[in-house]
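Our preliminary data section would be incomplete without showing what the modeling component actually yields. Below, a chain of 426 amino acids is followed by its predicted structure, encoded as tokens that our downstream tools consume directly.
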Amino acid sequence: MASLLHADTQQELYMRAMQAEAAENIPEALAYFERAAAVGGEYTEEIREIIKLYYEALGMAKDSTGKFSFRVLSDVGFYGLHYAEFGRGRVSENGGDLFASASAFLDYNIGDWIHSLGVAFVSEWFFANDNMPVFDTNDWTLAPGLEYSLVGNKLYLDLGLDFNVNDEGSLKLSGYGWIEYDFYRSGKQRIGVAAMGYYRDDGPASAALYVAWNKTEAFGFSWNAYLGAKYEADYMVDILDFVEQANSDCVRDMWGNCIDQYGGGSVIPFVNYWANCVADHGDSVCADSKNGILQTYMEEAMAESQEAWENMQNPPEIEFSKYWSRWVGPTLRAKFTYMFRNRISIEAKINAFGAALVDGASEEYEKMGKFSGTWGLMLSWNPSWFTLYLGVEQLYMNYWLPDSLKEYFPGSSLLTSGKAGVKVEF
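Predicted structure:
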């Protein structure tokens, strides 16, 4: 669950306070001003002066004991999906996804700090995934979650725990954390450091360290950019081990070729017991029916055929060996926003990760490398308590593979999603 408190930048809270003030809703305006001051930014001193004037006009002293506030947020929308693979064979699939989320947060504002505790429900319904066998989604997912956030002038902390349930009845826990600290400010720009971590029972897991650079404008051009190093781990099937097991455990014909004992085309291998006997003892000995030597070779051949037949009726189980693949490399995540005065905004974002496999099942896997990247554009309009948005996003994955793995991994894949929805906050 992404932090919904962190999504409110100071200029967004400032504008909401100004809108509440224009509507003569003084309690709401004051609450937004105090949240904006706690978030921090280039308007902090100005906002604190406004808050001071409010309390003086209302004949009150600022409450140093802190106070509580409550808010509810929701997001409902639709994804249109197109998935494609390139390299080992062309794949092209289309589908759709409806999603909805509802969150409730209890905020405690004291001094320059906001503590926030939230509960959220996030659900997705892949209503058109019958034609997506390769992309392979669940029919539906539900993820209740808990979140704690702490926001101060220079520090931001976000911790969360999600309970992931799907239509197959499985429950997987996942947890995440993000911490960011600003150590330098100049005008409307902030420079700092950030760290993140994520873990899910069935994978993936990741951790990263960043240098952060943020610029915030009430209107016009704003950005936040994070450049650093990332560690990522996920389960991967050892396909080379599986193929080796299949080749070693299969029934073979008299030429040593593996027989397709699982596809219904199996045959019992033919053993030439006469040729074997002659090779060991000569024609005359084997032709003598009284010495019983040829009979011995016949019985051995029958026993071998019987064993082959039994193996075909009870084929050996071949296990898929899974292991944690561990990747390390540089990463970049950035978001650029332009806000017009009519509250329409255009947002562009990118999240890129290039990595080498440093811990694989064998040396062959450690020759692998990958690049993954997400980029997208979004148009949104936030007139008051709701936001309408429309956007497109692509997730690209490319593998660098040794020859031994090119048959089993796609060279690259691309997931394109068009999305539209509405967010509300009360």
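The helical segments are 10-22, 26-39, 44-57, 239-249, 273-281, 283-287, 293-313. Residues 293-313 form the longest helix (21 residues). Preliminary results of this kind motivate Aim 1 of the renewal.
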